[in-house]
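Fill in residues.
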């Protein structure tokens, strides 16, 4: 479902601020893979997701989604293949629009727009059914402005919108980092359920080692813009934070340094 082949990306080349963000990155995801991504600050985690999404062009290499080479496609054209939930709950939705209007935008993604009435009664009922699955009471607040929702409610809504059209690939970029622990656990539970119900292929960046171990069927660790660990199957099920730290030290030749990851 996803192939990243020998991708390089350097920011501010030939300047004092030069930063090699991706350094010959290679990754292959099979359909249905749910991969968690862990790594220290500057390891290349979010840079990899941005390379997949087409936020900026890569220096070299290929990005292939479901057999289609999207390396040269702009971000808005790649959006047809992708669903994405960002770290900031304010991203991914239109704050000044109602819940039902946000859902309508997501529902019409990739469709030709006409001049008919915006939201039909049938669609409104469908939205209520979808929102009820979130178990947050939003099905009774279709006309509420999204900007009035809590961070957790908004992130759950964004997750629903990102998966309405069953994307080829779902990108979760630290999507619980800005939430309190209880709300973060709820959003992660929803993420697991939606990914499993729709058999989605997903990448989830996290700083929390426990979350990286507990969720998904595969865990990768990044360092210096490349993947140094790829753990799956029974090995991942038996993994502990201590095991992961030891494996990182062996693979990288240094200790893992990230207060957010260790304290998380």
């Amino acid at each position: 479902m996803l192939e990243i082949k020998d991708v390089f990306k350097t920011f501010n080349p030939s300047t004092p601020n030069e930063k090699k963000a991706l350094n010959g990155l290679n990754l292959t995801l099979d359909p249905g893979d749910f991969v968690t991504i862990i790594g220290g600050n500057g390891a290349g985690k979010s840079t990899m997701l941005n390379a997949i999404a087409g936020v900026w062009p890569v220096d070299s290499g290929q990005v292939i989604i479901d057999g289609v080479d999207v390396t040269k496609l702009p971000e808005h054209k790649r959006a047809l293949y992708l669903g994405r939930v960002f770290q900031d709950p304010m991203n991914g939705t239109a704050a000044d629009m109602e819940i039902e209007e946000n859902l309508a935008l997501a529902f019409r993604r990739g469709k030709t727009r006409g001049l008919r009435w915006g939201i039909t009664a049938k669609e409104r009922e469908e939205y209520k059914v979808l929102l009820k699955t979130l178990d947050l009471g939003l099905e009774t607040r279709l006309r509420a402005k999204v900007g009035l929702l809590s961070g957790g409610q908004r992130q759950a809504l964004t997750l629903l919108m990102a998966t309405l059209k069953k994307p080829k690939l779902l990108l979760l970029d630290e999507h619980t980092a800005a939430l309190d622990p209880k709300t973060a656990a709820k959003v992660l539970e929803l993420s697991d359920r939606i990914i499993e119900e729709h058999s989605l292929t997903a990448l989830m960046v996290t700083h929390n080692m426990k979350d990286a171990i507990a969720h998904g069927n595969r865990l990768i660790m990044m360092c210096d813009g490349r993947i140094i660990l790829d753990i799956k199957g029974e090995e991942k099920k038996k993994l502990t934070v201590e095991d992961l730290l030891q494996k990182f030290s062996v693979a990288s030749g240094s200790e893992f340094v990230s207060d957010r990851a260790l304290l998380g």
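The two ends are 30 Å apart (CA to CA).
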